[in-house]
Amino acid sequence: ESMIAANKELQNGLIYAAVIVVLVIAFLTALTAVTFGGITRAIEVLKGLTEGDHSQQMPQRRGIFASDNDEVGELSSALQSYRGKLLELEDIRAEQASRRKERDSVIIEKMSHLADQLEGDAKTLILNDIGRMRELEKQETERGEEASVELMLLAFTRMSDEVNALINARTSEMEKARDEAIDAKGETSRFFANMSHELRTPLNAILGYGEMLAEDCEDLGYDDLLPDLKKITSSGIHLLSLINNILDISKIESGKMELYITSFEIEDVVDVIKDISAPLVSKNNNAFQCNIQDGIGAMRQD
């Protein structure tokens, strides 16, 4: 009987031990599923966000083992923060794209107005450029900033060419009119005033576009274009100054000239001359050398 009792007690002990083992295994299985299941889902969410699927996010955690302070909870919070930053960046890019499209539409509109004022080959060239610009405008969804900058450069180049042609034409007219009106003091004054006005209007437009392009290039990070744009703007300002001097001559002749004496650094003027002359010097394979004494000082002029 003692043997039977001992065997029965042993069997009961084995049963209890088996039950405990099963419970431990079930507990560990549940704990592993909660922990590694959350990590697996986090990996899937991160992969989706990286591929551009911003709808991916961590599910709400439930259960007795779920906690926002454990590793999986902190990982879930980090992923939610990352997703929020991506959505914010997407909104910023959408706003920038909208602003680029609006700006490019304005450029195309201005070019269309310019084409309406031209005739012959000049008008044909402008219309061809407008067609190219419209193609670039459609490509912005794929090429983004690159297409937008290409459009701006195309517009600026064409407008610059047309204004240069206009300046050359007006210069020829000025020379012809000057020869015809050399003996008529009053006619000469009116001539210079009218022609300087006709030159300043398109030149101011070019300077405005140059400054706009420089600001856009700075915003978009195209720093390699800034030196050329600044040279164009500097040359335009210098030419505008010469035109203003022409207008001053007419004022002197009419007795309405007012003097505005200002100081300027000689070295700054020399630097401007060097910047303006550098492209022509390089084009003709010449050398431009300037020897100036340090601290030469300033001058005064009207």
UniProtKB/TrEMBL annotation:
Signal transduction histidine kinase dimerisation/phosphoacceptor domain location: 187-255
Record-annotated membrane-spanning stretches: 15-39
Enzyme class: transferase
Pfam families attached to this UniProt entry: HisKA (PF00512)
SUPFAM superfamilies per the UniProt record, alphabetical: Homodimeric domain of signal transducing histidine kinase
InterPro entries: HisK_dim/P_dom (IPR003661), HisK_dim/P_sf (IPR036097)
Reactions mediated catalytically: ATP + protein L-histidine = ADP + protein N-phospho-L-histidine
Species per Swiss-Prot/TrEMBL record: marine metagenome
Annotated GO MF terms: histidine phosphotransfer kinase activity; phosphorelay sensor kinase activity
Keywords noted in UniProt: Kinase, Membrane, Transferase, Transmembrane, Transmembrane helix
Lineage of origin: unclassified sequences, metagenomes, ecological metagenomes
Enzyme Commission designation: 2.7.13.3
Name of the protein described by the UniProt record: histidine kinase
Listed GO CC annotations: plasma membrane
